[in-house]
Amino acid sequence: MSGHNEHKEFIYLTPMPVRIWHWINALGIVTLCITGIQIRFPEYVNIFGTYKSAIRLHNTAGVTVSISYAVWLCYYLIIKGNLFKLYVPNVYDIKMGIFKQVLYYFYYFFKGGSSPHHATPDDKFNPMQKVAYMGLMLALLPLVILSGILIMNVAPLREWIIVLGGIKLLVSAHFLIACCFFAFLFVHIYLATMGHTPLAHFKPMWDGWEEIEHH
Ligand code: HEM
């Protein structure tokens, strides 16, 4: 135990727009997953009454997630201008950082060690977070949104759909990416509990401020 417990120090890690985006997005994605399960497996699952109401809720959540994604993107690209700095791993991250971070999550964490990465507002994510969040926010989320927009507008956008390989391929791609989001949710929430206390990483996602861990 460190002797610095009496005066706690905090850093402002997560600005308000990111927090608002994150929780709207989380609620939206969870809603999309649950309604999506009914839409994909209607013979086994009926949570929202009729098939039609599941689709209506799925579309509403989809539009909400799409708009909040656009706001998130504009915020990081235009207002903060640090999207790539925060989200793209550097050479060291790829060569060493990821390895160290994986070793920490699988081994040193359980030995009571502390993370090799210390978050600051300019370097918020550890190498594993960068890779996961970059893949998610700059590839999977835009792809699932685009495929969703096409599936929602089959008639007016049919030319585009044909160019992209047809409706079957599109629906399969949409479902496959959705499965990635479903799997991500569990890993994301588990890893989020691996701060120096189980709720340490949840706090900055709620009020912006993270407590600095003393050694
Ligand atoms: C109920 C569901 C969710 C919970 C409880 C949750 C929890 C958290 C927590 C505690 C953090 C801050 C610590 C960390 O970075 O690990 C965080 C950050 C983040 N989460 Fe989630 N999350 C959820 C859903 C999602 C979903 C569905 C996505 C994306 C599709 C997502 C993407 C992110 C991103 C990109 C960050 C970093 C945000 C930033 O500071 O720029 N989360 N989440």
Explain the layout of strands and helices.
Elements: E1 10-12, H1 16-40, H2 51-80, H3 83-87, H4 91-106, H5 127-152, H6 158-163, H7 167-192, H8 202-207, E2 209-211
Antiparallel strand pairs: 1-2
This protein binds protoporphyrin IX containing FE.
Q: Can you characterise this structure?
A:
With about 220 residues, this protein is mostly helical. It has a single domain (about 10-210), classed as Fumarate Reductase Cytochrome B subunit (Up-down Bundle), CATH 1.20.950. It contains eight helices and two strands. A two-stranded antiparallel ribbon has the order 1-2. The longest helix is centred in the first third of the chain and has 30 residues, at about 50-80. The protein is elongated, with a radius of gyration of 20 Å. It starts with 9 loop residues before the first strand and ends with a strand. It binds protoporphyrin IX containing FE. Protoporphyrin IX containing FE binds near residues 129, 189 and 191.
Order of helices and strands: EHHHHHHHHE
Largest sheet, in brief, is:
2 strands, antiparallel
The dominant shape is elongated
Chain oligomer state: single chain
Strands in their spatial order, largest beta sheet:
1-2
Helix/strand/pairing class, anyone?
mainly alpha
> Which band does the percent of strand residues land in?
under 5%
> How many H/I helical runs?
8
The CATH architecture comes to: Up-down Bundle
Q: What would the average pLDDT be, to the nearest integer?
A: 94
CATH topology: Fumarate Reductase Cytochrome B subunit
In which range does the helix fraction lie? 55-70%
Each distinct ligand: protoporphyrin IX containing FE
Distance from first to last alpha carbon = 8 Å
How many structural domains in the coordinates?
1
The CATH class name reads Mainly Alpha
